[in-house]
Structures are given as structure tokens and as C-alpha cells.
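Hello again, I could really use a second opinion on something today. I owe you a coffee for this, so here goes:
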Amino acid sequence: MGFFAPGDVALRREVLHGKPWSVTPTRVVLDEPGLLVVFTVPGTVFGFPPHHYPHGWQAAGNTRWRGHGKLQLHRPGDAYSVDLYWQGPERRFAGWYLNLQDPFRRTPLGFDTLDHALDYWAPVEGGWVERDRDEFEAQLAEGKYTAEQGEAIRRTGKEVGAMLDAGDTWWDRRWADFTPDPDWPVPTLPAGWADYPLP
């Protein structure tokens, strides 16, 4: 599949148990063989197709993105993304959030993945903390992941923790200076977003 141009809309679709689980339209910032960078524009509305496993955001009434938006860095094959967040009225850079998820798979309309709940937060002030271990373990017990997937996710978590301990991070910290194009409108879900085929 071809690459996207800056400003294109790419659908970030989560696929659970072989069925679409959630869909977020994002704006492409950079797409090249070694790195895919997308931005979730403030106000973006999420799509939740019918699914036997309820999505936590939908259950909580979180239907759109709030705040300053989120920048996501993806390397092919990595079982996590590096998400950047900004806070406050001055849009102060807050830090890097390593979001464990399936390695992304390209589709004609964007890319597919699946969030793994377990995450790692590295604030700009230094250090790091593990996030949502209890949520991940609960989802594993509920059958969201198989036992084999659970072990793989735990291994990825250990690798991420070791990388952060060593300070051997691969991403360019200048992404913290990213400012979205003010001319970008909030992307919307296209017709057929809930039923376009899996790759």
C-alpha cells in the first residue's frame, strides 16, 4: 500500500477478536518507510462499531478527543506507539506516553492496531512510571487477550522499561515542538467507516 501525504486523513482502527472495535480519524504529519506520525485533532469524534466486548471510552461517554490533541509516533514492527501530550492554556509540553499496542498494519484508509492498556509515562521533568497494570490484568482475565498475547505484552513492557531506564530512546525529542497546522479542519469519519474490510 502507498504512503499518505501530510494532512491526509488516516483512520486509526482498533481491531479486537477479528472485528473493528473503535475508529479514530487522524491527520497524517509524516509517513515514510521507517516512521508514521499522526495527530489527533482536538474535537475529533470517535467511532465505535457494534462489538461483543464494550469499549471503555464508549461506556464512559468519551465520544470525542479533548485537550490539545495527541501526536503519535509509530515505527514498523514496534508493539507500542510514542504519544506526545501538551497541557494548560500555554500548551506546555508534558511528556511522552508509550502506548502498548499491536504493531500497526496499513489499510487503504489508514492503519489497524489494538490498544493493550499497559502504558509507560515519561514526563518531561524526567523519570518514568508504569500505568494501567491493573486494567491490563483485568482485561487479560476477561478474555480480551489470549494468554500468549498477555505474555507478549508483558515482555514488551519489560523492554520499554529497560529502554527508559537506560535512556536509550530512539525518537527525536524535537517532536515536542510540534504545532499542528491551524488550517487543518477536524477530520470526520467517512461513509462506510464501520464496515470497510480488514486487510
About this structure: The mean pLDDT is 95. The domain at 9-50+61-177 is CATH 2.40.380.10 (FomD barrel-like fold).
